[in-house]
Design a protein that fits this description.
Length: 464
């Protein structure tokens, strides 16, 4: 397999606060009727304007088998095709796994990409790739989360498009992916801790689920909260200098975010799943998969631009053994039900046309059953890690449903048509969110970096 080269292009100029030169320029343009706010607004277009589109990234942690879900190979040898059969869908000519019957009837709503690929089939590194839109590790990054990592999508929004309306730019739920150490791709990485996203680490299916961090204590109203914030500011300012440390600056950021989110009742109420009717909750399924997706819908409805919903705890889809039993009995039924309910719910509420839904894992599974490429033992009924080919499914936000984009070879080992990489996934997500993928970001040492090196996956929207 030939590795993809990342060719750098000039980075887009970062939008900066107004300078003396901008004020003078604005004065010179005033005779043309262009005031400073208009000038800055035009410049903001380069980095991406806030828009009304959102993203729900459904992350299948552990890497699901593409051959047994959305890219079956019924004509392949038995040791490749396995025991599942394909079934027809609502999209002519498109077939998926027999154990996804609900999604089969909704295939006209989504597009399947069968030629995703990258070259690093390790959970930690591949998770980093997919959750940040990169194809190779940044300098200094390892298999463990650190401040050398690339920022996740929500953190980039925090950096390029900060907000103070109390609505977080992104929420990750319902667990923190770790293996005794955190997986990369779940925070702001090299941008610094002040841009970390809101992370929910509780099961939405729990009987008394509430995210109390976004609920005011009993007896404390918005007015009292504002008074406390003012008092804190009056006590705090005298001791500050222009050279305050980065640590204090990050703490200030957390503090302000906390006050803002506590004041935003819409976001806090989104976590009150008990306000949904029993029928809606049952439709999603009373399990972690279903209730996480229901919470995702409530969050985008409250104005959160991007929500990442992990389908299970760390490496949940890692079927090294009992691949078909695990998929049939444990994984596919709640996935099928939850995602189908999400698509229906978004559509009924008029949200699907402006919400991009992405279903993806960090890679696929070995074409040959029992094939061993790195695990310590031979397991006849399992599939090992495989990043040569895997799938991604897209719906909403202008995606032309009912189509398959790209194809893999006869045994689903490598792309047979144009390959798509994690960077292309990232470019597509950023464009949906109104962010120029070529935007410039700066790390904690103020070094300029290009945000993304991929290309938007245009066939998703053109149907070509």
């Amino acid at each position: 397999m030939t590795a993809r080269l990342n060719v750098s292009r000039p980075a887009a100029r970062q939008t900066l606060p107004a300078s003396r030169r901008q004020f003078l320029e604005a004065g010179g343009l005033s005779c043309l009727g262009l005031a400073l706010p208009e000038l800055l607004a035009r410049r903001a277009d380069a980095a991406g304007r806030p828009n009304d589109r959102s993203v729900i990234l459904v992350f299948l942690t552990g890497a699901p088998s593409h051959l047994d879900m959305f890219d079956l190979k019924p004509q392949a040898p038995a040791e490749v095709r396995g025991s599942f059969n394909p079934i027809a869908t609502s999209a002519p000519g498109v077939e998926i796994c027999e154990h996804l019957p609900l999604l089969a009837t909704r295939a006209h709503q989504y597009a399947i990409v069968r030629s995703m690929t990258h070259d690093l089939p390790g959970h930690e590194q591949a998770t980093h790739f997919v959750l940040t839109g990169i194809d190779r590790l940044p300098l200094g990054a390892t298999h463990m989360a650190s401040r050398n990592d690339w920022p996740c999508y929500a953190s980039t929004l925090n950096y390029l498009r900060p907000r103070n309306d109390g609505i977080p730019n992104g929420v990750l739920l319902p667990t923190y992916l770790h293996n005794g150490y955190g997986f990369s791709g779940q925070d702001a990485g090299l941008l610094g801790g002040r841009f970390d996203p809101l992370h929910v680490k509780q099961d939405p299916n729990a009987e008394k689920f509430r995210f109390d961090s976004l609920n005011l204590p009993d007896g404390v109203g918005p007015g009292t909260l504002q008074n406390r914030q003012t008092l804190l500011a009056s006590l705090d300012n005298p001791g500050r200098t222009a050279e305050r440390s980065q640590l204090l600056a990050e703490f200030d950021s957390y503090q302000q975010q906390a006050f803002s989110m506590l004041s935003a009742s819409a976001v806090g109420r989104a976590f009150h799943l008990d306000e949904e009717s029993p029928e809606v909750r049952d439709r999603y399924g009373r399990h972690l998969f279903g209730q996480s997706l229901l919470l995702s819908r409530r969050l985008v409805e409250a104005g959160v631009p991007i929500v990442q919903a992990n389908m299970g705890t760390m490496n949940n889809w890692d079927t090294h053994n009992s691949n078909f039993t695990q998929l049939k009995d444990r994984l596919l039924p709640p996935f099928d039900r939850g995602v189908s309910a999400l698509l229906d719910d978004l559509s009924e509420r008029g949200l699907l046309e402006k919400t991009l839904v992405v279903l993806v894992g960090e890679f696929g599974r070995t074409p040959k059953l029992g094939g061993n490429v790195g695990t310590p033992s031979y397991v006849p009924d399992g599939r090992d890690h495989w990043s040569g080919a895997f799938f991604a499914v897209f719906a909403g936000a202008g995606v032309q449903g009912g189509q398959v984009i790209g194809s893999s070879d006869a045994i689903a080992a490598y792309p047979a048509t144009r390959p798509y990489h994690p960077s292309d996934l990232g470019a597509t997500i950023y464009q949906t969110l109104g962010i120029d993928p070529e935007s410039e970001v700066r790390d904690r040492l103020n070094r300029p970096l290009r945000l993304n090196a991929g290309r938007v996956m245009e066939p998703l929207f053109t149907g070509a």
